[in-house]
Amino acid sequence: MEVWIIGVLLMGYAIGCLHGSVIAQKISGVDLKVTGVKNAGASNATIVLGKKMGALVAAIDIGKGAVAILLVRYFAHQAGWPEDTVTLLLFIVGAAVVIGHNFPFHMHFNGGKGTATIIGVLLTLDWRLGLAGFLLFVIVALTTDFLVVGVLMLYITLIAKALWTEGYWPLIIAALLFGMAIWKHLENFSRMKAGTEKRISAIFKKNAKKD
């Protein structure tokens, strides 16, 4: 089991390091780490490069979260692991792929914030709960006009999934990811307090003119 856990962690991290922002940089020539809010994620790609490029980055980052879950689910079932063990491995690889996105070695361990990737993880862990979490994310983000508030709903959804799962490790993993998400978004909360955080409505107005 230990070998499986190590393998799943390494695979998940490696997949997480495959960044949509790198593709966006190759296409546009713009380094998202030094422009906009200086974040290698879909939201900054949307702010700096427009909705189309933001959608491309989001699709890649959502996709890698989904691929990581699908691969581990397939190989774990092929190996004949019991369902509770498979679920634990899925939570582990889900955490690893988000960590890989947030702390990729090729970006000096300073990547994105994991929002698109956790969406892919959630949708593939349980598509019904994942869809509910995504809708909650959209509704809360649009209602508050701040993306970061909606992001927290995704991690709360993951915690809800963990609460319905046997064993305590999935809950610990989900809680740690929630804590990491808050830590990664501290600058957003600081900007909200200062009144300088970009609102969703302002971003779309800006990009409507750009596109």
UniProtKB/TrEMBL annotation:
Keyword rRNA processing: no
UniProt xrefs under InterPro entries: G3P_acylTferase_PlsY
Pfam families to which the protein is assigned, alphabetical: G3P_acyltransf (PF02660)
SMART domains xrefs: G3P_acyltransf
Swiss-Prot/TrEMBL keywords: Acyltransferase, Cell membrane, Lipid biosynthesis, Lipid metabolism, Membrane, Phospholipid biosynthesis, Phospholipid metabolism, Transferase, Transmembrane, Transmembrane helix
Chain ranges passing through the membrane: 6-24, 55-76, 88-109, 129-156, 168-186
Main location as per UniProt: membrane
Catalytic activity: an acyl phosphate + sn-glycerol 3-phosphate = a 1-acyl-sn-glycero-3-phosphate + phosphate
Subunit structure: Probably interacts with PlsX.
Family named by the database record: Belongs to the PlsY family.
Full protein name: Glycerol-3-phosphate acyltransferase
Species whose genome carries this gene: Sporosarcina soli
